[in-house]
Amino acid sequence: MFSLKGLVKHSTYSLGHVVKRGTLCQQARSRLVLGIETSCDDTGAAVVDETGLILGESLHSQKEVHLQAGGVIPAVAQRLHRENIFRVVQEAIDRSGVSPSELSAVATTVKPGLSLSLGIGLEFSLAFVKQHQKPFIPIHHMEAHALTVRMLEPVEFPFLVLLISGGHGLLALARDIDDFLLLGQSTDEAPGDILDKVARRLHLKNHPECSAMSGGQAIEHLAKQGNRRNFLLTTPMGQVFDCNFSFAGLRTQVSVAIDRKEIEEGVKSGELLSCVNDIAAGTQHTVASHIAKRTHRAILFCKARGLLPQHSPSLVVSGGVASNTYIRETLKIVTDATGLHLICPPSKFCTDNGVMVAWNGIEKLKAGRGILSYKEEVRYEPKAPLGIDITTQVKDAAIRMPPLKLRVKN
Hints:
Elements: H1 15-21, H2 24-28, E1 32-37, E2 42-49, E3 54-61, H3 63-69, H4 74-96, E4 105-111, H5 115-132, E5 136-140, H6 141-147, H7 149-152, E6 159-164, E7 169-176, E8 179-185, H8 191-201, H9 215-223, H10 248-265, H11 276-304, E9 314-318, H12 325-338, E10 341-343, H13 347-350, H14 354-367, E11 388-389, H15 391-397
C-alpha cells in the first residue's frame, strides 16, 4: 500500500514556467491531467493541458537492468516501479508548477500490459485520487499510443493506425477516441520482440558499438553497415491474405541460419560472427517488408470499404519499433504508392511515457467519456483487445496486392 504523505500539495512558479506557459490566468482556465504509465518497464508521469502543452514530465527507464538480464523480468519490473513511482510523479508535478489541487483528473494505464507492473501504477493512482478527491480516467495503453499524434498535430478521424513495439503489433482504424476497428494483429511474437531475440542470439551486447543499446537499436545500427542481400530470408505469411502478423517463423529462419554460420566460422559461445552486420540487415529488411505488406493490404481494404476519407487519408505509426528509420522509410514507399499521408510522432513519443497517457486522459475529459469518481473500484487487465475485431472480414476479402518494390538505401 502506498503512502502519499509528503507528495507536493503546493508549488510555486518560477519565472521560466511563467514565460514558457503564459500567464497564470491562462493556465488556470485550462484543464490539466496527470498521466501515469507503468504497463511494462518504464515508469512515466506527465502533466498535460488541454491544448497539448506538456507542463512537466518525468520518466524512469529500466532498460539497463533488463538489458543485462536479457529481457524484461516481471518481478524485477514491479520492484523498480514501486521504488520509483513516487519520485517520478513528484518530479512531474514539481516541473509542471501546479499543485495536485489544480489537476482536473488523473489518467493511468490499466490495460493491457504486465500484471505486476500495471498493479503498481493503479495502486498508486487510486491512492492519489482518493487523497486529492480527483476524477480517475482508466487508459487503454494501445489507444494512448494511437492518439498521441493528435496532441502534436490536428489529425482528424478516421485514420489508419499501425502500432509496433516489443509487446504489440497491430493495425486498426481509429474512428473516434474510443472507437477502433481491429484489422490485424500479431498471432505470436511482436516485431520488437523478434529484433530483441535476434540481437541476443547474435550476442550483440558483446559488440563494442552496441553494449549500451537495446536489441532493436543494435540491429538497426549494425544493419546500416550490412548488406541484406547476403542474408536472404523469406517474408512471413506470403500466401495468407489478411493483415495479421507472424514473426515466430522468421525467428526460426534466422536462428537456423546463425547456427549454420557459427559452425562454418567455428565461433565459440558469446563470440561475434563476421557476418553479423549482414544478418542484422537481412533481419531488419524482412521485418520491415512483412509490416509494410500487411499495412498495404489494410490500406487497400479500408479504401475498398470506404472507411478512409477521400481527402488526405493518414497512416499513423507509433510504438517503440516505429522509431526504426528503415521501417519508417519502407512504410513511406507504401503510403506514397497509395496516396496516404504518413505520420510518425517523434521517437520520444513512440515509446512508453506519461505524456501519451495524460493526453488520452485529456481527450476523454473533453469528450466526457470514461471518467470515474475517485470512490469507484478499478481493476487492471493484462490482456485487453483494441476495439471491434474485424480481422475475419479482412481475411475473407482476400485482397491480393499489386507488386511494390520495397527498396530502401541503408
